[in-house]
Amino acid sequence: MPTPIHPDTVKSIRALKRWTQEQLAEATRGKHKVGLATIKRIEGTKTGSYEANDRVAEGLARALGVTVQALSTPGAAPAGQQPPAPKPGMRQLRTMIDEETTHAFRMVEQLYGIPPQTQIVMAPLFAALLAEASLDWRRDRAERMQAAAREVSSLATGHLAAARASNQALNCAAWELSRIANRDLFCDDAPDEAYEQGYDPNKGNPFSDFLAHFIQQIGARTVEIAPGGGWKTRKGMPRYRIGAEAVAQITARDPEASYALMRGHVRMTDIPAELMAPERLADRNAWLASHLPEAERAELRARRERTGRDRPSPQPARPAPSAPKSSHSPKEQPDA
């Protein structure tokens, strides 16, 4: 028998715990696991209550620390319930991230099974590793430039132009090594001569150059610098996309199905195995699109009409890959 869950009650109790929808989904466990898409549907219910099955209702109640009956009661959180005191040693991040970064968190979770909270914990480590790798890459190139310039200089006796060129190259390499020693990742302290020679921080910087090189070197097909360039931060972090190719392979670039995956309305691991066969592309896309809230579906279609972009026909390209294995155990059952 379905259990009515009131959306405002779930929202208010979740807010008291200072949890995101993703954190609430992570807090549900085992056979009472509740997917993020289900939580979105519950909280997105506009009128009345959401009719959930017993497993979903019990899972949410256990995670939120209330009774199932409390979740069925319209209104705010149970009286007297106060926000929990911060755990010793824990600090709340006070920052805002753009929508693209939010989607990137979700795609990393879908592709690699790393929850957003864990990604945040990992971020300083990965930032430091990438920074050091970029400096090492630049150091190697500067030292090779020095060696080549010295070789030219040894051969430039009597050739004034060659001697000047080698001397300029040596000066450039020395300046670059000084920037590396100061850990100047984005070339914030470029000399006037660099600008005179055509350096434009609006088009590139050493760190973004390294990222593009690294992505190509390791063949990271799930990561790409977004077409059209541009910066995500004032420091010169390039715009990027995660999982775009994986989504394209699953959906053949169907806009509504792709949108459902990229926006986290449904996960790759949620796709039924029988729908992953190449000949089930149309059924797979229809299933994915069915998870879109009606308001977002209408907005997406209106946007496409405004831009004059018709829905692309499915491409008989390579077969869709198998959906990534879920990191949950036991296997999550379909939500109501």
From TrEMBL:
CDD domains listed in its UniProt record: HTH_XRE (cd00093)
Transmembrane annotation, as ranges: none
Pro residues composition bias: residue spans: 313-322
InterPro entries: Cro/C1-type_HTH, Lambda_DNA-bd_dom_sf
SUPFAM superfamilies: lambda repressor-like DNA-binding domains (SSF47413)
Annotated HTH cro/C1-type domain residues: 10-71
Single Gene Ontology MF annotation: DNA binding
Ranges of biased composition (kind: Basic and acidic residues): 293-312
Residue span of region Disordered: 291-336
Listed name of the protein: Helix-turn-helix transcriptional regulator
Species annotation: Neotabrizicola shimadae
